[in-house]
Design brief:
By secondary structure, the chain is of the alpha/beta class. The chain is built from six helices and seven strands, in the order ααβααββββαββα.
């Protein structure tokens, strides 16, 4: 089990490979591309690290958020925090498509909301597959829910979106965010380069407040017709919303680093596919059973089905009345 090291490893942001503050627009690839992924790719942590390394103000905000989160969790242990009910987050989907088949239906968007509510409510049926080893740290109900507030749609000539840039969030090429301090904006784009399924900004890290939110490639949003196996059960959004609510990858940035939850085993890196339990991997010469069924790993959708208690506390700290995403509570 890990110890939480506040301030020592706060390297979790979200930027792929170019400067997120760049104003030099690089043309998007226009050649026909089929996004079929056999491995989960999410650059959110590396995006955050890049922003924090260049932006002292963002690092100060993240340090403050981590301190607030640690204080919140400690107050829970001391019995100083009382349950204040469930927080319902309003969601705005911004759908940007080129062809009519890429214009994700309202039904699929609602199916994604349904998946989020089950996964964050601990009512997903596959949570019962949790091994006995991890049953004691299973989050159960995180007291966070989601409701569909609005759907915006726009047709675009862009064949493929580069996650290094934020063109899908601009008025010219995409859709401008709806009050990102009060709504969770999820941009659904037809395809992304680099095999990226989705990415998100952590609290306090968006270089431009209007960029705050989540981006997901259309084949991996919701369930049913139009989604692509093995990421066809809506868990890409669960994973990315986890980042949006301040959950890092289980391995940190580069492996064997803290994820600031002391009830997840140290991990040398992501797992993929459909791992068989138990799966042992080593950090610092110590072999540990991996919690590859956690939403913040890279396993296929059918292998992901749980958060932990500490992850629940981290997310609750973010949406609490004093948290960095408290604005989501007022709608």
């Amino acid at each position: 089990m890990k110890k939480v090291l506040i301030g020592a490893g706060i390297f979790f942001l979200a930027s792929c490979s170019s400067d997120m503050n760049s104003t030099n627009e690089s043309p998007e690839a226009e050649a026909p591309v089929t996004q079929t992924a056999n491995k989960r790719v999410c650059p959110s942590d590396l995006m955050r690290e890049k922003i924090l390394s260049k932006n002292p103000e963002a690092r100060a905000r993240v340090n403050a958020i981590e301190k607030n989160t640690a204080d919140y969790i400690n107050n829970i242990k001391l019995g100083k925090v009382l349950a204040d009910g469930t927080v319902e987050i309003p969601v705005v989907f911004n759908v940007i498509y080129k062809t009519t088949t890429e214009n994700v239906s309202d039904a699929r968007l609602q199916s994604q909301i349904d998946v989020l509510n089950k996964d964050f409510g601990g009512t997903n049926s596959d949570v019962n597959n949790t091994p006995a080893e991890f049953a004691s740290v299973k989050a159960g109900d995180t007291k966070i829910r989601f409701r569909l507030a609005k759907v915006n749609r726009k047709q675009s000539n862009t064949t493929q979106w580069n996650p290094d840039y934020e063109y899908m969030k601009s008025a010219t090429k995409g859709i401008v965010a709806t009050s990102p301090e009060n709504y969770l904006n999820i941009w659904v784009v037809n395809k992304m380069s680099g095999g990226t399924l989705g990415y998100a900004y952590y609290p306090g890290t968006a270089p431009n407040p209007s960029w705050d939110g989540v981006v997901i490639a259309a084949p991996y949003i919701g369930t049913g017709s139009g989604t692509e196996y093995p990421f066809n059960l809506g868990r890409t959004a669960t994973h990315e919303v986890g980042h949006y609510l301040n959950l890092p990858h289980l391995w940190g940035n580069y492996g064997c680093e803290t994820d600031f939850s002391d009830d997840t085993p140290l991990s040398p890196g992501p797992n993929s596919g459909v791992p068989s339990y138990p799966l042992y991997r080593a950090c610092g010469g110590v072999s540990r059973s991996q919690i590859f069924m956690n939403y913040m790993d890279y396993s296929d959708d059918r292998s992901l089905y749980m958060f932990t208690q500490n992850q629940k506390q981290r997310m609750q700290a973010v949406v609490a009345a004093s948290g960095p995403r408290a604005g989501l509570r007022i709608n």
